[in-house]
Amino acid sequence: xxxxxxxxxxxxxxxxxxxxxxxxxxxxxxxxxxxxxxxxxxxxxxxxxxxxxxxxxxxxxxxxxxxxxxxxxxxxxxxxxxxxxxxxxxxxxxxxxxxxxxxxxxxxxxxxxxxxxxxxxxxxxxxxxxxxxxxxxxxxxxxxxxxxxxxxxxxxxxxxxxxxxxxxxxxxxxxxxxxxxxxxxxxxxxxxxxxxxxxxxxxxxxxxxxxxxxxxxxxxxxxxxxxxxxxxxxxxxxxxxxxxxxxxxxxxxxxxxxxxxxxxxxxxxxxxxxxxxxxxxxxxxxxxxxxxxxxxxxxxxxxxxxxxxxxxxxxxxxxxxxxxxxxxxxxxxxxxxxx
Amino acid sequence: xxxxxxxxxxxxxxxxxxxxxxxxxxxxxxxxxxxxxxxxxxxxxxxxxxxxxxxxxxxxxxxxxxxxxxxxxxxxxxxxxxxxxxxxxxxxxxxxxxxxxxxxxxxxxxxxxxxxxxxxxxxxxxxxxxxxxxxxxxxxxxxxxxxxxxxxxxxxxxxxxxxxxxxxxxxxxxxxxxxxxxxxxxxxxxxxxxxxxxxxxxxxxxxxxxxxxxxxxxxxxxxxxxxxxxxxxxxxxxxxxxxxxxxxxxxxxxxxxxxxxxxxxxxxxxxxxxxxxxxxxxxxxxxxxxxxxxxxxxxxxxxxxxxxxxxxxxxxxxxxxxxxxxxxxxxxxxxxxxx
DNA sequence: AACTTCCATGCAACCGGTTACATGAAACCG
DNA sequence: CGGTTTCATGTAACCGGTTGCATGGAAGTT
Lengths: 339, 339
Description:
2 copies of one chain form a homodimer. With 339 residues, chain A is an alpha/beta fold. Chain A is built from 13 helices and 12 strands. Chain A has helices at 4-11, 15-23, 30-43, 49-56, 80-93, 111-119, 137-141, 165-178, 194-210, 226-237, 251-263, 281-285, 297-314; strands at 61-66, 97-102, 123-127, 146-149, 158-163, 184-188, 219-221, 245-248, 273-278, 291-294, 321-323, 326-328. In chain A, the strands form 2 sheets. In chain A, strands 2-1-3-4-5-11 form a 6-stranded parallel β-sheet, with helices on both faces. In chain A, helix 8 (165-178) packs parallel to helix 9 (194-210) and helix 10 packs across helix 11 (251-263). The longest helix of chain A has 18 residues, at 297-314. The radius of gyration of chain A is 26 Å and the shape is elongated. The termini of chain A are far apart. Chains A and B meet through helix 4, helix 5, strand 2 and helix 6 of A and helix 4, helix 5, strand 2 and helix 6 of B. Strand 2 of chain A pairs antiparallel with strand 2 of chain B, so a sheet runs across the interface. Chain A binds a DNA duplex (30 and 30 nucleotides) through helix 2 and helix 4.
């Protein structure tokens, strides 16, 4: 492997000049620069990242922390892969790499921080793992730039990215109202999670804005999984005055609800209209098609990358970022041409 | 940040001894070792990975190459996340980290190899990206240990991991035969892909073993996507003598086929039985439940990790690994208690 | 007692970059 | 034309580990 000194010798310059060509190209004479670059290409010189990191204490790597808890095998962020692609792409474009870190059940609380320090990681991104993980605490409390998805975190250099859950929920309710529904229920996510709480808030706010009464029995808490949506819907159908529309705070729950409605011999959307949240792949596939609020999946990754790079380079902490959601109308709230 | 020399000074030893404590603990006197370890813990010493990599030329990092081609946004390996978790977990247990590398549309063919060299990556894992990607060629041809999933690759230090696709397909056909079906069709994946070709081979072999005639019109090629399964099924239903069972070489296609059957006014499993392949999450959710061959998702990651680490440490190339599949019986081939 | 072997450790060079500071030549300026 | 500024580059220390070789003392051997 060619080293910087070897390349320098071949070009008749010092290693400092070569180094400058790769880091501050503008300060070196154009002819010298061209000579060095062409020679570098010829001999296949590649700067060694470890040496660079050692000298600069910046690795150009960002850590990704996500949950691999095997005790909850079913748990998945609905867009893990899309977020990862968006994140990776955005980081690559700016010359950063992504190093995977994962919770290990036998880890000590500061494992992540230690890993970050050992590798000189420039920043970290958390994908919300759906629970309070104490092992993130030391990291968030450190000076390391941290960006969290779907959940606020506290620390000197932390920020977070999430969908505008409340606005999306309001749009869901507004849409149901616009199609003529007046008894609108909701199946919430766990209200201790941020998205769960925010979507409930949006639901309540929009009800108020539309002048509809808030009837507590129309609010049932779920856990984002399919079976909880199913159970919640069955409970709603048993009410004295059952709803004619349901906003489920997650598509999986909406699909569970859909099944409960169908089993009860009722029809979607004729008897009950349904709106979900997320726009998972399945939403388009399950008949009659699920109307839902699409989250900007790739945008999560892009926004997280932008935030972490800003923090790395500019020593400021950008405010939390709310990504807009988009209403996608399918058959569950009206006729869908595709079914 | 504490350095090795600082720790050495505090303990009254040389940095060489400290280094040995972390790399060859057994060669250093037990008392000295304890002193060094306890002092290290007290002052929070962490070895710097960049310095270590620079000195040893081994990074203890493995690269992961997967497809993020935004021109094919729908493309996904069916188990990307599960594989990633398995891989990450297995690597962590042996002290390796995972660095994400991704195709970039403007990359040159040897981009990956360059990235590997710059970072001194010890090995690489490919997740089959479903196409022939020329940018993998230089890497496979190099001396870098490479493990590929679902596709054989050629090179001096390469191996691959895949499910035993042929055996799984045979089991699918055998199961359909055992439930009394005699006209068994198949919807294949692209036969230029390894899994596509192998599943077709298994289908044909089992037909022969059961003494059933191979009727070419019962073999329709799909592309693993839902819509191709739908189209293929419609074609099969138009036959003079339509099949009473279909083995689809992927769950998504099977679900497409399911829809085509339902739309034609026929019932699954009464009129037509269906078996898929993969056991994607949706397989359990779509009524009446899809019988399928489950792949050992986490096993992919574990096997890939084991293979790459073997190649790194032992300078041998392990043979390709075939993971067994498991038949999961659901409603699409008979009554399912859950529906 | 002399010799060999083994054990634990130190010495010092090395890995391949970066960068503060110094230097010398050319350009600019009144 | 001497002095100042600017530009391009070189010098050399430094980042924080690893490791081949040397060393000295203890243990084992004859």
